[in-house]
From TrEMBL:
PANTHER family: CARBONIC ANHYDRASE (PTHR11002), CARBONIC ANHYDRASE 2 (PTHR11002:SF79). It comes from the Bacteria. Catalyzes the reversible hydration of carbon dioxide to form bicarbonate. Reversible hydration of carbon dioxide. This is Carbonic anhydrase. Its cofactor is Zn(2+). It comes from Cerasicoccus arenae. Residues 42-57 have a biased composition (Basic and acidic residues).
Length: 223
């Protein structure tokens, strides 16, 4: 058995044990989404409760975790999931990459959160004025290229820009929405673990856009 397999099995074993020990309440995707949106409303109103961010919360989660949601968000410094959802330690399992696209590593991280930690919800979170989406538009429309490994990010964004382009003139707002929708569908169909959990009704996957000025998360329609 290769070293990586041994590590994975060890992690699964430890997690299975900690899951039995956890005292956190099971909630479904709809309830998790409501908690997130309630937290976002507190954030927009400046009424954050900063739940479970203290020493006691750290102690409570030191030996186990049961996050209520997976967030796939952009790396943008203004889009910090725990802050904008007014969430605490242990609440969110966060995957961040510029442009909030689904990478293989991101998929694997989500599979762990669903299969081992029992996460019932994925929210793909795009945001206004996303530089990665803007670069994706430039790459698609003008064949622009970018230094280093940046172009590799855009390969995942350009399909969404192409979909937006097929519907009319591409605006940033439209491309951002399509990019979220594309990643949301990609999560629903990804691999066997995520797609099976969705089919069995154990995993809810939604898309949203974060508005930088208001702080509000807008949930996008599924279609
Ligand atoms: Zn961004």
């Amino acid at each position: 058995m290769c070293h990586a397999s041994i590590l994975v099995l060890a992690a699964l074993s430890v997690s299975a044990q900690t899951r039995r020990e956890t005292t956190l309440t099971n909630i479904d995707g709809a309830a998790a989404l409501k908690q997130l949106m309630d937290g976002n409303e507190r954030f927009t109103k400046g009424e954050e409760k900063n739940p479970d961010r203290d020493k006691a919360a750290r102690a409570k989660t030191a030996t186990s975790q049961r996050p209520m949601a997976i967030v796939l968000s952009c790396s943008d410094s203004r889009v910090a999931p725990e802050i904008l959802f007014d969430a605490g330690v242990g609440d969110l399992f966060v995957v961040r990459v510029a442009g909030n696209t689904l990478t293989l590593e991101g998929q694997a991280s989500m599979e762990y959160a669903v299969a081992v930690l029992g996460c019932p919800l994925v929210i793909v979170l795009g945001h206004e004025s996303c530089g990665a989406v803007d670069a994706g538009i430039q790459a698609y429309k003008d064949n622009a290229t970018f230094p280093g490994r940046i172009d590799s990010l855009l390969d995942s964004i350009e399909p969404a820009v192409a979909i937006a382009s097929a519907k009319g003139p591409v605006t940033m707002e439209h491309a951002i929405d399509e990019n979220v929708a594309y990643a949301t569908q990609s999560v629903k169909m990804a691999g066997t673990i995520l797609s099976k959990a969705v089919a069995e009704g154990k995993l809810t996957v939604v898309g949203g856009v974060y508005h930088l000025d208001s702080g509000k998360v807008e949930i996008l329609d599924a279609n």
